[in-house]
Amino acid sequence: MQLTYQRQELTTQITYGQTLVQSIGKMLPTVRHVIILTNQRYYDQFFEKVQRAFFHNNIDWYICRNQLYCNHLEELTEFLQFLNRFSRANEYLFIAFGNEGVIQLTGFLQQTSLFAAKFWVIATSGRSFFSALSENCTICKEPYNDLLQQKNLPECLFLDQTIVQQQIDEKLLDLQLLIKTGLVSDYSFLQRLFKSFPTRKQLQQSSFIAFVEDAIQLHQHYASIIASYGTTFEKAFYLTENGHLLSAHMKRLLGLLLQLFWNLELNDVTFQIKNFMLWLKKLGYLLELPATLSVGEYLEQVLTLQKEKSMLVLSDIGEIGYRQVADERTVINAIERYQKIISEI
């Protein structure tokens, strides 16, 4: 299936429901030199499959770190050094085949480099697929410190289920992104997820493909808002002592949930938050804050970070409201309520 996706003046041709070779087909420009940016794990797992899809082209690979925020200044510098071996007289195709950091790094590079290059994305997961639909391509100094940003979307975006479905251990992470999409922009979408994936077993046995088209439409309207929800609370973990005890993905999940709880302090809607948290626990998400994490220090970091940019408040679940600067009391109440519910489920 093919869809045209648009964000402001930027457009992307999305192809999904086919294998990679079928999807690329006649779209591949044979005269362009292909440079693929990926993470080590995806290079190891899919090198031969991707090579076969581009057998008509000259191909070079650049291997990024596996970390979530590999779109950092050091990686950017190293890639620019890698490009020094290539002639600017040639035409190139930069392809992002990796995690969210690889998508952002490639989109930024294609927009700012002096090379004549197109920008494509081959999704390795649901998260990388939807990350490619957000036009803000950022380079950071640290995960909590954005330095540079360019607006860019890939010319072509491919979702090959035979690649994505092999990432069984990442299904929880992909579902997390879909849950976030529903929380921020469409409550009925969230309800469908709840009915379709009530337990971890059903999640592991099922595909997300039935949700792709609706999620694409939601991102077309709200991609940057969806992407930013929870990021202030997430980034505060990187600045808090013992925050390293949480993985990058756990920081992201807890950041989302704590902004939701803060949101509920401002708009105490009828959402059954305890049932929602129980569902997340049944699915297998780790929800506890580390016992050695200083809540006081974490609170201070949240308040400091949000001075730079106020946070989104949902007027209701699935309904985008307004932006507001948080105060100490509402954040404390949100954290205390979160910990109380975690202790009860």
Automatic annotation (TrEMBL):
Cited Gene3D superfamilies: 3.40.50.1970
SUPFAM superfamilies referenced in this protein's UniProt entry, alphabetically: Dehydroquinate synthase-like
Source species, domain of life: Bacteria
Protein name as catalogued: 3-dehydroquinate synthase
Organism (species): Tetragenococcus muriaticus 3MR10-3
Organism placement in taxonomy: Bacteria, Bacillati, Bacillota, Bacilli, Lactobacillales
